[in-house]
Specification:
Blueprint: H1 3-16, E1 20-21, E2 37-39, E3 47-55, E4 64-73, E5 82-89, E6 92-100, H2 101-109, E7 118-127, E8 135-144, E9 150-160
Antiparallel strand pairs: 1-7, 2-9, 3-4, 4-7, 5-6, 5-8, 8-9
The structure holds 2-acetamido-2-deoxy-beta-D-glucopyranose (NAG).
Residues 26, 72, 74, 119 line the site of 2-acetamido-2-deoxy-beta-D-glucopyranose.
Length: 162
């Protein structure tokens, strides 16, 4: 039903789950971190985000979106982890809920928990459907482990135009 919603949530997920295992070093980021996603994590969070880049930035309806991100997990992330997500279109709340982090990762990105500690990066393309209603979207997402240790905090804000 709210297909566009899942695209937005996926976007946030992609940035939260730094999927592909990479060797010891963080790759340099070619372009600056996007302005539309703010990292509201602190030093105490499990995930230290190095960069998030989008192309095109901001995303455009009906166009593929490339997302590159890298970060460092200080602990393994396993079953029972969850994400509190709040999505608004303008002032209207479109979605508020708790999503199973491992389940989402497995369904959307063909990955399996546990996500090991260390450096992870993603380089992924998603389709942004042209059916997404125009307007200003804001997404607040906070991820936690089963025992309530925060993994990351992200806030995204973007406007989809004609
Ligand atoms: C990743 O984080 C760990 C501590 O959690 C740290 O020891 C390590 O140096 C970090 N790696 C990089 C490349 O920043």
């Amino acid at each position: 039903m709210f297909l566009f919603l899942f695209t937005i949530i996926n976007l946030v997920f992609l940035t939260l789950f730094l999927i592909f295992q990479s060797p010891n070093q963080l790759p340099p980021s070619s372009s600056p971190t996007t302005n539309i996603i703010k990292d509201c994590s602190t030093k105490n969070d499990i995930l230290a985000i190095e960069y998030i880049t989008l192309n095109p930035d901001p995303p455009i309806r009906g166009h593929a979106l490339n997302i590159k991100a890298a970060g460092n997990l200080s602990e393994t992330v396993d079953q029972g982890s969850y994400v509190d997500v709040l999505v608004r279109l303008g002032l209207v709340q479109l979605y508020k809920g708790k999503l199973d982090l491992c389940k989402e990762v497995e369904q959307n990105f063909n990955l399996k928990c546990p996500l090991k500690k260390g450096i992870h990066k993603i380089d992924s393309d998603v389709d942004v459907p042209k059916e997404i209603p125009m307007g200003k979207y804001t997404v607040d997402a906070q991820a936690y482990t089963k025992d309530g240790h925060r993994i990351a905090c992200l806030k995204a804000e973007t406007v989809f135009k004609l």
